[in-house]
Amino acid sequence: AFGSFATLGAAIGALFCGNLAMVIGRRGTMWVSDFLCITGWLSIAFAKEVVLLNFGRIISGIGFGLTSYVVPVYIAEITPKHVRGTFTFSNQLLQNAGLAMIYFCGNFITWRTLALLGALPCFIQVIGLFFVPESPRWLAKVGSDKELENSLFRLRGRDADISREAS
Questions:
Q1: pTM of the model
Q2: CA distances from residue 135 to 16, 27, 154, 156, 160 in whole angstroms, order as listed
Q3: How confident is the model at residue 153 (pLDDT cuts 50, 70, 90)?
Q4: How many Å apart are CA 62 and CA 10, to the nearest integer?
Q5: CB atoms within 10 A of CB 41
Q6: Whole-angstrom Cα distance, residue 2 to residue 110?
């Protein structure tokens, strides 16, 4: 049951990720996802009772469900056409490599340490989210034209001609 709670949480997160990403944006959804994952991993790492372990698995699973949708969408929306496939493929490759590494490391370190290590990428992403712009496509959908242009300039460079992409 403990192992399947993350899958249950991911299914719950997947049900809401599209609407959440449309309402609060791609960055906002990543913030929510990171908060849920960090809460889940820390709950698992410091659990003294089974209830907290199960809560941590479900909460982190919800975060996984959100992440599995919003990160590839964000990557596809911010990258130029000529490298879009490479970047979206790299996301899947690196996710699977990370999972394989955690399974391997699980042979040598305790599950509490693994849970703390699971929270580490989420903390790094929280810091990184301060430095990345919102998705230009989402900004266009919500009618934020000035922020759209600023986002494109941050992504493409100040000297780039963004007029065609912005329109």
A1: 0.89
A2: 19, 8, 11, 12, 17
A3: confident
A4: 5
A5: 25
A6: 16
